[in-house]
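User: Please predict the structure of the protein below. I'd like the answer in structure-token form so I can feed it into my own downstream comparison script.

Assistant: Understood. Taking the following sequence of 353 residues as input:
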Amino acid sequence: MKVAITADVHLANKKDYPERFNALTYILDSIKEMKINSLIIAGDLFDASYNNYSEFDKIALKYKDIFIHVIPGNHDATIDNSVMTSKNVEIYSEPAIKSLNKSKIKFFFLPYRKDMVMGEPIAENKDKLRPNKWVLIGHGDWEQGMKVSNQLEPGVYMPLSQKDINMYKPAHVFLGHTHKSLDGESICYPGSPCGLDISETGKRRFIIFDTNNISLESHAVKTDIIYFDESFLILPLKDEESYLRKKIRSRIKEWNITDDDKSKVMVRIKIRGYSTDIRKLIEIVNDEFKGHKFYEQEDVDLSGVFLSRNLDLEEISRQIIDSVEKVIWQSSPHEPSRDDILFYALKTVYGDA
């Protein structure tokens, strides 16, 4: 049996945020075409500021052949079945163990509770959860994955520990709350199906989970908006223009977007480093990002760029660049990036230029 899984849709006023409704509708259209009749939403279907559920109800009624399973998250912790008229929606306001479509795999739906850890309700139901024969649907922080926790909501939300996983042995775990997609060995954050703001970048996805072989497939969501928040390092070289253009083109290539997606992009640009012609940087950025929209019509952030025309230091810069580029880099959110190292190394060379 296959089920679709998403989380953190954050439906709000449809007039102001139509893209969130469109992302959910896209998922429903996609799984209908795949002949999948179950969608699980792992918390925060609604935004905290929203309490008019009729628009979602209309969507659910349109897809009567798809059963939608919802657990409340920290943003919609008070919702229950009384807010829906559609019979194909089940909101699990209390922990529940379900077998979907007679699957041998049990689904443990665990709604968000403030000041609680996930291990508590799991322990209370352990006799009903056979090792490797159940799947957890929760909303909170995986302790081993705190490095990618939700930036908009600091702190710890209903954590799940590795000890819980080792002890109770779920076949897989699907969590909401962290809006960035993450795939661990037995943990999956589907991520938001639509970026909520500029901090949630790149293409979005939903998950198809096959209970027969415990496999996952990621499927892209065609969203109305695709956010990118990009930072570039500029160096005071004779060929700094071609250097920056090359970096920008490489970054855009990494986005892996189609021509149809180009008009959907909202980008924020920051440049730091040392340049012989700061005004030229704006011209380069506008040229290379032609056809893309700038987030909230912001200007390029050049606050971290220093003017330098001391080309005598060019060879030293090149040697530093070559040395740093040769290092095999293991990126981590809590460690400086390659560009960070290079920037501060050049700052030692150039000072405040």
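That's the full token string. The mean pLDDT is 91.
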